[in-house]
């Protein structure tokens, strides 16, 4: 059953669910018995003080970490242990806390690498018969050009990304994740290190992606203003445990959340 948000966006059924996830590194428990869901069309934030387990959670969802306990369900199916590229092929794309682009390559080429999960022909096939590979390349190129237009980055399409200012590199990284045409987009601190104007731009792009492509988005963010403005629901972690889960308003007024944040001087 779809529900409508105040601004008229449609939120559908559960797209991804984590159930009782426990993840430890040696003696350090990064996540303890964490459960929550992400619904189709939703913008979902994961927040919490430093070391709360946010990135670990994203790494579990994207297949980089494998929890000792718990289950991940995607599109109604329980997932077996999966490698990150298998998760990506299933329709989950992500960006990283520290930008992970190919710095010497152009914006365009970086975005093309985002198409890899969608490519059908391989190198042998390309060598044997150029036709289909060429047609495929053209189709991928068209998709990437649309993303370049959407993000307003035509002027930097040939620029090596290492030469771009930080805010633009973050935008290219978002573009690469978009190029994968994922159902679920995971953004690890998309506004970290940005000035106010860059943050406002990034917020706009996240909302536009969600509205225009219907992409479900889960993001980790430290800027509370951004989290409260952008997200439909927020899950709060602290010391690897789930502290609260609800609408921005519910979470903002939760005494346990206020305590956790005040306690670490936020
Ligand atoms: N690969 C790893 N090896 C060992 N310990 C790890 C690893 N990844 C995370 N941890 C530990 O797990 C805990 C949670 O870390 P995590 O990075 O998930 O927190 P976070 O909420 O994302 O923090 P931050 O806001 O500072 O990025 C920390 O104690 C961290 O040191």
From TrEMBL:
Keyword annotations: ATP-binding, Nucleotide-binding, Transport
Matches recorded under Pfam families: ABC_tran (PF00005), BCA_ABC_TP_C (PF12399)
Official protein name in the record: Amino acid/amide ABC transporter ATP-binding protein 1, HAAT family (TC 3.A.1.4.-)
Domain of life: Bacteria
Matches recorded under PANTHER family: ABC TRANSPORTER ATP-BINDING PROTEIN, CONSERVED COMPONENT OF ABC TRANSPORTER FOR NATURAL AMINO ACIDS-RELATED
GO molecular function ontology, one term from the record: ATP hydrolysis activity
Domain ABC transporter: 16-264
InterPro entries: AAA+_ATPase, ABC_AA/LPS_Transport, ABC_transporter-like_ATP-bd, BCA_ABC_TP_C, P-loop_NTPase
Transmembrane segments: none
GO cellular component: plasma membrane
SMART domains found in the cross-reference section: AAA (SM00382)
Source species of the chain: Thiothrix eikelboomii
């Amino acid at each position: 059953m779809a529900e409508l948000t105040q601004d008229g966006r449609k939120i559908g059924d559960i797209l991804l669910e984590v159930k009782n996830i426990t993840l430890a590194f040696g003696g350090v428990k990064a996540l303890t018995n964490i459960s929550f869901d992400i619904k189709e069309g939703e913008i979902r934030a994961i927040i919490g003080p430093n070391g709360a387990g946010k990135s670990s959670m994203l790494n579990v969802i994207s297949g980089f970490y494998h929890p000792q306990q718990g289950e991940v369900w995607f599109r109604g199916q329980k997932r077996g242990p999966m490698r990150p590229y298998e998760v990506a092929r299933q329709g989950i794309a992500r960006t990283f806390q520290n930008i992970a682009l190919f710095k010497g390559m152009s914006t365009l080429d970086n975005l093309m690498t985002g198409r890899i999960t969608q490519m059908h022909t391989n190198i042998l096939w390309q060598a044997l018969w150029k036709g289909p590979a060429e047609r495929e390349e053209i189709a991928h190129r068209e998709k990437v050009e649309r993303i370049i237009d959407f993000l307003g980055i035509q002027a930097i399409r040939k620029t090596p990304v290492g030469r771009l200012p930080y805010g633009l590199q973050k935008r290219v990284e978002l573009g690469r994740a978009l190029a994968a045409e994922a159902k679920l987009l995971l953004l690890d601190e998309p506004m970290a290190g940005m000035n106010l104007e860059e943050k406002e731009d990034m917020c706009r792009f996240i909302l536009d992606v969600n509205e225009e492509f219907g992409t479900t988005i889960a993001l980790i963010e430290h800027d509370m203003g951004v989290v409260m403005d952008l997200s439909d629901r927020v899950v709060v972690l602290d010391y690897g445990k789930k502290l609260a889960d609800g609408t921005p308003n519910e979470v903002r007024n939760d005494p346990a959340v206020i305590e956790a944040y005040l306690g670490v001087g936020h």
